[in-house]
Fold this sequence. Notes:
alpha+beta; Ubiquitin-like (UB roll); Creatine Kinase, Chain A, domain 2; 2 domains; binds magnesium ion
Amino acid sequence: MAINLFEIAKKKKIKYFLISYVDFFGVLRSKLVPTHSIKEMQKEGAGFAGFSTYLDMSPSDPDMAAIPDPQSMIQLPWQMDVAWLAADLWMNGKPVEASPRVMLRNQISKLAKKNMYLKSGVECEYFLISPSGDSIADQNDIADKPCYDQSALMRQYDLIKGICDCMIMLGWGPYQNDHEDANGQFEMNWDFSDCLQTADRHVFFKFMVKTLAEKSGLRATFMPKPFINKTGNGCHAHLSIWNKKKKNLFLDKKDKLGLSKTAYNFMGGIMHSAEALTAWFNPTINSYKRINAPVTASGATWSPNTITYSGNNRTHMIRVPGSGRFELRLMDGATNPYLLQAGILAAGIDGIEKKRNPGKPVNVNMYEESHKVKGAKKLPLNLQQALTNLGNSKVLKDAFGKEVINSYLTLKKREIKKYNLSNEKKIGFKGAKKSTKSNIITQWEKDNTLDC
Ligand SMILES: [Mg+2]
């Protein structure tokens, strides 16, 4: 039966709805709609001027309609009279193909034709920092190896508990919270689910963490590399494909790593397109200071530099921690939650269709012995290279359409231009390419990425 948002609002005492969408740069855009208007908005959508956000549109384009998906509704646990809704963008009576949630939906439909459904879980790392963004929030969090540090975790108990309580209330099945590998860095995990739901929750999680941190007088950042000598913010995803009968199609107990042929082909597809996918998975100038980075204060970056896979070994781009799933460790905190899932699907579907072979697992410590691995492809060194790879990717152009890819490239190239024109010149870095070699985080990066 169709979900009637007006009726739900009456029952749950919701006074306002946030009708939201995420643009290409991952920015969450919303309209706050009083309940008496939700009937009409549920049907017609909320109007937005696309040009005003990071979508490749012109000021003369007609209004976009953000049509809320009632399945996505989340009542804000800290503000119960407001409910959040993820929306799909429409224009002139058609879905906007060059918009992230529509792109993901299209890939989900493609896989569904094979009676296959992607389930995924994401691990969003973030830092708690001072409101100015100059330092981490907890000045006592100074250990050389701070990962899982109990005292540093418990000093942020009120906030972490507050966020976790919200997830419990929402029924997400949160199961652990910890201090991560950098001073000031945390991670919270909740259950995996259908990839559209995970993408919506991923968007909401970032909004929730930032909001609750702010209420505690702090700031939360998912910026890929906010501090040059500390481990960056990753956003690893655990992946498996299931059929309608709830059978895990990635599982083969007879295989050494517990993976099926379908799983290896899907993985082969991701490895084949990884150089291009970095444009979405590592979408900022700052991202390239996380991948390919030198060793951090804690002893490792925990981020990949090469397109390889392994068993339970965290130095590779893909890790197989257990049977029936694998972990993709490429993405960072700036990745667009919808493009993350859409990109994985498009590349994975190509892998299944072309029967792409990921080769043999590589069983070395990539941080120390990568020279022993012959023929493995390297990840791009900067955003410009990643965008060039995306522009050259037949797989992604076929999956999403040339125009959609070009729209993304247009906006991102504009961003690089702005970066190049910024005060970088004053300090001697004349472009994105050189800056990836730099050993500082610039003010421009902070201004443009801290709230990603
Ligand atoms: Mg982690």
